[in-house]
């Protein structure tokens, strides 16, 4: 065995110890993807349930608003492309929808824990608990069609019963739980029990997915929430008020908010280790989205992007904020908060969500396993047979 291969194996869990080199790995041939998350991976749930997105959302790739909080494709779209699947349809879509290769349960503003907020207050009824229950319903209802003696063309729009055990289950949720804690005035010290509770809730839902047959779980940690432009003083504070030393890091990100995200991620990674011991026949991959996104933010200019604090769509100047695609009054004058000329140069689309270009950059770096534990490319991340 090559020394390089030996070094890699020392960091892999027990279920991977029998593999000698990456060349010997067999592609998983996933038949479907089932995704859980918030607006970072919502492909149409919120738009179908409440109000549809409007242009310029979707303008870059789809050339129309398609329920995504970006100018184009999301990371989950690039995951689907990479695995050879069509883009995932939202579970509650009702017209012209095929779920043959999976379904997307993610919804904008969703959280792991239940929040005492309505949609109009920035909340969502589609918590992770609801999303995993939707998976339960989806599996049970589609299974009935395949259990009938006579199968018809209707079943071609659904995954086969055996596909659920072979599918990959992706999770990208938790950012809104951290944001809720911040909005409630919590700092690092008093957020500790809350973050622990959030992770416990997450563990329960992962166990639910496992009990429904999920054996390949691809879990994203949460990104650097303190680096979202809307969190930065340049967009939400009085410019006359000086920023205290240590409040911002070297990239202009709000340090304590990122520290809270890091604390969540640390506890999440410990949970993943625990779940691997609890479910040894499953493959549970921890994806460090925080590091991937922070690397992009740290090297924005080098990678061809403008300053990461800049926002492509919307109006955010001198304490005045008009959301992307909307009209508003600024200094007695009505303005339309449209898109920048070239979204591909921006990391932030609307101050909260990433542009297609940034999503593509990040996807390219997580799909090959560079930010994963264990460092497996996604197509090799299923359990050993």
TrEMBL record:
Question: Which SUPFAM superfamilies does this one have?
Answer: SGNH hydrolase (SSF52266)
Which top-level group of life is the source organism from? Eukaryota
Q: Which InterPro entries match?
A: GDSL, SGNH_hydro_sf, SGNH_plant_lipase-like
- May I ask which residue range the UniProt record assigns to the signal sequence? 1-21
Ordered alphabetically, the record's keywords are: Glycoprotein, Hydrolase, Signal
Q: Does the keyword Hydrolase apply?
A: yes
Per the UniProt record, one Pfam family is Lipase_GDSL
A Gene Ontology molecular function term for this protein is: hydrolase activity, acting on ester bonds
Recorded family membership: Belongs to the 'GDSL' lipolytic enzyme family.
Q: What is this protein called?
A: Uncharacterized protein
Q: Which organism is it from?
A: Clitoria ternatea
């Amino acid at each position: 065995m090559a020394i390089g291969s030996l070094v890699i194996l020392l960091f892999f869990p027990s279920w991977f110890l029998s593999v000698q080199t990456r060349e010997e790995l067999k592609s998983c041939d996933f038949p479907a993807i089932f995704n859980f998350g918030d607006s970072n991976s919502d492909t149409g749930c919120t738009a179908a349930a409440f109000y549809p997105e409007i242009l310029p959302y979707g303008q870059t790739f789809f050339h129309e608003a398609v329920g995504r909080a970006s100018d184009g494709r999301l990371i989950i779209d690039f995951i689907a492309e990479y695995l050879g699947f069509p883009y995932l349809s939202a579970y509650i879509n009702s017209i012209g929808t095929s779920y043959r290769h999976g379904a997307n349960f993610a919804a904008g503003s969703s959280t792991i824990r239940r929040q005492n907020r309505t949609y109009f207050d920035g909340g969502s009824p589609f918590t992770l608990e609801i999303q995993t229950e939707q998976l339960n319903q989806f599996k049970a209802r589609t299974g009935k069609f395949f259990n009938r003696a006579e199968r018809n063309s209707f079943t071609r729009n659904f995954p086969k019963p055996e596909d659920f055990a072979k599918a990959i289950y992706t999770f990208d949720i938790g950012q809104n739980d951290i944001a809720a804690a911040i909005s409630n005035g919590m700092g690092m010290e008093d957020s500790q029990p809350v973050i622990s509770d959030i992770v416990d809730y997450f563990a329960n839902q992962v166990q639910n997915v496992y009990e429904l047959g999920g054996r390949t779980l691809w879990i994203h940690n949460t990104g650097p929430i303190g680096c979202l432009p809307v969190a930065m003083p340049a967009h939400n504070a009085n410019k006359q008020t000086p920023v205290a030393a240590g409040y911002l890091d070297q990239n202009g990100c709000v340090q304590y908010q990122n520290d809270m995200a890091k604390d969540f991620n640390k506890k999440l990674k410990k949970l993943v280790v625990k779940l691997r011991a609890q479910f040894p026949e499953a493959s549970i991959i921890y994806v460090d989205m925080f590091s991937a996104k922070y690397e992009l933010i740290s090297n924005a200019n080098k990678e061809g992007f403008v300053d990461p604090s800049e926002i492509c769509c919307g109006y955010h100047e001198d304490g005045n904020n008009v959301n992307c695609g909307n009209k508003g009054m600024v200094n007695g004058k009505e303005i339309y908060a449209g898109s920048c000329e070239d979204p591909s140069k921006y990391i932030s689309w609307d101050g909260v969500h990433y542009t297609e270009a940034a999503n593509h950059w990040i996807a390219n770096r997580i799909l090959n396993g560079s930010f994963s534990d264990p460092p497996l490319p996604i197509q090799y991340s299923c359990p050993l047979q």
